[in-house]
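Structure tokens please, single chain.
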Amino acid sequence: MAQKVILVDDLDHSEGEDVARREFPLLNRTFAIDLSDANQQRLSEALAFIEQVLENAREVKQATRSKKAADTSPRLRGYTLTDVREWAREQGLDVPPRGKMADEVIEQFIAAHPDAAPEDASEDVTGKSGAEPVEAPAEVGAGV
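Here you go.
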């Protein structure tokens, strides 16, 4: 005696003679689901709607960060913050794996690597000018 296989609709869990395995394409992939004729009709309508939406939509690309842009610092010349982190760890300094680097660590790195100093020698590694402000001389005869 042969056993009868009863398929169950994956959406509404109904049983019926019209439930069958249905394959459908979506976004360059193929999916399979057990559906009754009524739910197959609903799926077909939904896919047609999605197709219409996709024809009128545009794909959004995920923004990416350039590793170079994310890892360089205007406070360093010729080195990256990754270089500073590696050096600091070799020196036994505690540095975060990502994010802001302490000014003191960068200052120590530049002291050990003078070629890493910023091109503008009048600025220190914190971006502050090392020179004292100079007042402009008063014009001779002004206010007479």
